C-alpha cells in the first residue's frame, strides 16, 4: 500500500504562542528532522529566559479573569477543543509520525489518548466540587472549596509529542489556572498544531502559552517565581533535579521519570495472546516508552517451556516490518534521532561485553522502502541475562529485550522489586492467584496482568513509584485536579 | 500482500467494502428490475466502512496491540469489482455470492486473529459478518421476471 500523505509539506519555522499571539523568539534556530526520511521538517527556536518571562507574565495577567470564569464555561472551551481535535485527528496523528517516527497506528493511539484527557477535563464542574457540612456546631457550617493557584509549567518529553502535555494542561486550565507549555525541542510540530487548535477553540489570550526551546526554557520555568508548579516527564536524573529544585522554590511538582519494566511470564500463560502483547511492549514505539517492556522474566525450571516460548518470541520479533511509519504496513519505525540510536547500540555492545547472548541482533536489519538507515535499528533479544548486568538494570529506551529466568514467582517479584524503578511491571498468567500475588507485592505504580503496556486511561492517575516518580499526586484524572488546586476550608457563622 | 497492522487491516476493509459497493452499483445499472436492491447493498457496504472506522478510531490507543495483532494475506479476499457482465444476471448473482463469501471470510479471519487483543475492532468485524449472513439468501431469492 502507498505511503500516506505527509501533512508537513513545507519547512516550518516554529514560533512561540504567548498571550494569544504567535511570536518569534530571538533564540537560535535548530533543525527538526524526520528520522525516517532524514528530511528537514521544521526549525525550532531555543527560546530565552525573556521568552519565558513574557509567557509567565501573560499567564499571570490572564489568571484572575480566567479563574473567575465559571467552571462550566471553562469546560465549554475544552469541549470545543475536543471537537477540533477530532476534526483534525488524522493530520495530528501523521504529524507525530513525521517528526517522531512512530507508526501510524501508534500515532493515532497517541492522539486518541490525548483527546481522552481533554474529555475527562470537560467534566471539571463535577470534579472540582467540594464538600459541605451544616452545623459543625449549632449555627456554624464548614465547607471545602478547591481553588486554582495561578500559573503552571508543563515540560514535555520527545517520545509522545502530542499526548503528554495533555496529561496536564487540560486539567490545569479547566481548574482555572493558566499554563506555559514547553514541548520537546526535538518534536515541536505536534504541539504547534495543537496550539493552533487551542487558539481556534477561543481560549482567552494568556491562558494557554507555549514556549519552545531547550535547557534555558526549563531553567526559566524552574526558577520563575511566578510559576506555582510544574509537571515534568523525562529522565530520572532530570526528574529528580526538578523535584529537588521545586522543593527549594516552593513549587508543587509532578515529575514522572524513567523505567525498567519487567514482563514476568508464567508457564501457564496464554502463549498466543502473550506474544503479540510482548511485541507491543518491547518494540512498540521502537522501545521509546516509559511503559515499555525491558526485561522478560521467564518463570520456572521447565527448560522445554523456556526454549519453546523464547523461540516463539524471537521468531515474532524477527518478522517485524521496519520502515517509515506513514506506510501502514510498517510495524516499527526508527529511533527518533541518530544520537539516541548510538546510545542503544552502545548498550548492545555492553550486553555482549558482559557475556549476554545476542540471540537476535538488531544491528542487522532490513528497511521496508527506500530510506536512509541513519535512525533505524532492528529489534534485539539478549538471553542469559542476569539481574546485575547493565542491560538488565539501566534504561535503554530502545528495542532491546533482555531475557532472564526466575525459578519461581517469588524470585521474579524479588527481581522486579530490586530494580530502582517502579513504573509498569506486568505478568502474564492464567492464574488469578498468581496475578493477585503479583499485584499485591510488586513495587510498581502501574501493574499489568496479561497487558504489556500498562497505560492508565485518562480517568485514572498515571502512577509511578521509586525512581520512576517524584511527587505525591499524579497526572490525569481526579489526582490532576487535586494537584492543580488548593483546598480552602471555610467555616461560616452568621450573627 | 501481507497485512500486519491494524491500520493496514482498516485500509483493506475500506477497499473491500468500496469495491463491493462499486460492484453492486454496476449491477444496479445492468439489472433495472433489482436496481434498488443492489443500491441498498452498496449503501450498506459504505455504512460498514463508517462502523469499522468508528470502532478503530475510538479504541486505537498506544497500548493496544495495533501493530502486532494481525497476519493476513490479502489475495484470498480480493476480487474484481469490474467483473459484472451486463447480460448475465445469474452469473452476476454468482459473482456477488462469491464476493460476499470473501468479504465475510475476511472479517471473520481478522476477528479471530485479533479477538483477544484489539477490543472493539474484532467485535465490530463479527457484527458485520453476522449482518452479511442474510445476503446470500437475499441474492438467491432474486428471480428475473
Give structural notes.
The complex is a heterodimer of chains A (495) and B (145). Chain A has 495 residues and is α/β, with parallel strands linked by helices. Chain A folds into 2 domains: 12-257 and 468-493, Aldehyde Dehydrogenase, Chain A, domain 1, CATH 3.40.605; 261-449, Aldehyde Dehydrogenase, Chain A, domain 2 (3-Layer(aba) Sandwich), CATH 3.40.309. Chain A contains 16 helices and 25 strands. In chain A, strands 16-18-19-14-13-21-22 form a 7-stranded mixed sheet, sandwiched between helices. A 6-stranded mixed sheet of chain A has the order 10-9-8-11-12-24, with helices on both faces. In chain A, strands 1-5-4 form a 3-stranded mixed sheet, with no helix packed on it. The radius of gyration of chain A is 23 Å and the shape is globular. The N and C termini of chain A lie far apart (78 Å). Chain B is an all-alpha fold and 145 residues long. Chain B has a single domain (2-140), classed as Ferritin. Chain B is 66% helix and 3% strand. Chain B has helices at residues 6-30, 35-59, 89-114, 120-132, 135-140, and strands at 2-3, 72-73. In chain B, helix 1 runs antiparallel to helix 3 (89-114). Chain B is elongated, with a radius of gyration of 16 Å. The mean pLDDT of chain B is 93. Chain A binds chain B through residues 1, 89, 103-106, 108-110, 112-113, 160, 163, 270, 272-273, 276-277, 279-280, 284-285, 289, 291, 316, 321, 328-332, 451-455, and chain B through 1-8, 11, 57-69, 116-117.
Amino acid at each position: 500500500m502507498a505511503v500516506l500523505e505527509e501533512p508537513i509539506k513545507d519547512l516550518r519555522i516554529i514560533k512561540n504562542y504567548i498571550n494569544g499571539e504567535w511570536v518569534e523568539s530571538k533564540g537560535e534556530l535548530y533543525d527538526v528532522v524526520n528520522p525516517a526520511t532524514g528530511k528537514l521538517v521544521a526549525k525550532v527556536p531555543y527560546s530565552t529566559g525573556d521568552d519565558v518571562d513574557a509567557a509567565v507574565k501573560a499567564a499571570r495577567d490572564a489568571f484572575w479573569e480566567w479563574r473567575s470564569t465559571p467552571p462550566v464555561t471553562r469546560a465549554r472551551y475544552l469541549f470545543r477543543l475536543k471537537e477540533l481535535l477530532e476534526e483534525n485527528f488524522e493530520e495530528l496523528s501523521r504529524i507525530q509520525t513525521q517528526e517522531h517516527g512512530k507508526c501510524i497506528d501508534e500515532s493515532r493511539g497517541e492522539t486518541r489518548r490525548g483527546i481522552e484527557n481533554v474529555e475527562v477535563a470537560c467534566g471539571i464542574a463535577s470534579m472540582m466540587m467540594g464538600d459541605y457540612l451544616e452545623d459543625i456546631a449549632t449555627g456554624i457550617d464548614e465547607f471545602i472549596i478547591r481553588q486554582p493557584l495561578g500559573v503552571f509549567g508543563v515540560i514535555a518529553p520527545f517520545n509522545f509529542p502530542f499526548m503528554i502535555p495533555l496529561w496536564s494542561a487540560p486539567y490545569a486550565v479547566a481548574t482555572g489556572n493558566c499554563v506555559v507549555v514547553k514541548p520537546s525541542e526535538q518534536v515541536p510540530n505536534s504541539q504547534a498544531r495543537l496550539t493552533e487548535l487551542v487558539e481556534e477553540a477561543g481560549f482567552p489570550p494568556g491562558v494557554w502559552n507555549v514556549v519552545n526551546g531547550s535547557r534555558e526554557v526549563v531553567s526559566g520555568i524552574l526558577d520563575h517565581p511566578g510559576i506555582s508548579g510544574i509537571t515534568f516527564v523525562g529522565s530520572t536524573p532530570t526528574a529528580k533535579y526538578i523535584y529537588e529544585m521545586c522543593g527549594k522554590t516552593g513549587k508543587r511538582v509532578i515529575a514522572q521519570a524513567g523505567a525498567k519494566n519487567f514482563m514476568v511470564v508464567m508457564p501457564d500463560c496464554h502463549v498466543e495472546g502473550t506474544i503479540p502483547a510482548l511485541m507491543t511492549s518491547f518494540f512498540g514505539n521502537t522501545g521509546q516508552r516509559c511503559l515499555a517492556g525491558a526485561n522478560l522474566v521467564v518463570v520456572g525450571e521447565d527448560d522445554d517451556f523456556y526454549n519453546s516460548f523464547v523461540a516463539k518470541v524471537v521468531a515474532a520479533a524477527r518478522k517485524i516490518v521496519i520502515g517509515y511509519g506513514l506506510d501502514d504496513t510498517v510495524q516499527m519505525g526508527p529511533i527518533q534521532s541518530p544520537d539516541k540510536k548510538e546510545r542503544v547500540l552502545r548498550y548492545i555492545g555492553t550486553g555482549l561485553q558482559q557475556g549476554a547472548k545476542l540471540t537476535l541482533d538488531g544491528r542487522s536489519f532490513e528497511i521496508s522502502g527506500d530510506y536512509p538507515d541513519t535512525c533505524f535499528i532492528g529489534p534485539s533479544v539478549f538471553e542469559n541475562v542476569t539481574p546485575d548486568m547493565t542491560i538488565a538494570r539501566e534504561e535503554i529506551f530502545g528495542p532491546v529485550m533482555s531475557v532472564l529466568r526466575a525459578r519461581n514467582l517469588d524470585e521474579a517479584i524479588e527481581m522486579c522489586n530490586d530494580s530502582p524503578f517502579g513504573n509498569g511491571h506486568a505478568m502474564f498468567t492464567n492464574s488469578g492467584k498468581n496475578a493477585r500475588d503479583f499485584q499485591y507485592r510488586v513495587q510498581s505504580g502501574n501493574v499489568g496482568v496479561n497487558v504489556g503496556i500498562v497505560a492508565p486511561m485518562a480517568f485514572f492517575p498515571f502512577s509511578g513509584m521509586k525512581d520512576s516518580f517524584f511527587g505525591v499526586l499524579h497526572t490525569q484524572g481526579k489526582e490532576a485536579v487535586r494537584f492543580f488546586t488548593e483546598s480552602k476550608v471555610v467555616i461560616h457563622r452568621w450573627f | 500482500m501481507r497485512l500486519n497492522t491494524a491500520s493496514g487491516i482498516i485500509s483493506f476493509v475500506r477497499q473491500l467494502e468500496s469495491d463491493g459497493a462499486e460492484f453492486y452499483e454496476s449491477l444496479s445499472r445492468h439489472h433495472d428490475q433489482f436496481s434498488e436492491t443492489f443500491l441498498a447493498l452498496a449503501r450498506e457496504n459504505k455504512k460498514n466502512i463508517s462502523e469499522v472506522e468508528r470502532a478503530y478510531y475510538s479504541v486505537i490507543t498506544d497500548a493496544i496491540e495495533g501493530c502486532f495483532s494481525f497476519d493476513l494475506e490479502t489475495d484470498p479476499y480480493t476480487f474484481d469489482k469490474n467483473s459484472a457482465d451486463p447480460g448475465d444476471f445469474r452469473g452476476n448473482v454468482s459473482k456477488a455470492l462469491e464476493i460476499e463469501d470473501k468479504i465475510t471470510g475476511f472479517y471473520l479471519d481478522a476477528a479471530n486473529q485479533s479477538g483477544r487483543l484489539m477490543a472493539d475492532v474484532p467485535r465490530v468485524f463479527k457484527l458485520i459478518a453476522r449482518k452479511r449472513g442474510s445476503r446470500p439468501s437475499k441474492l438467491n431469492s432474486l428471480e428475473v421476471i
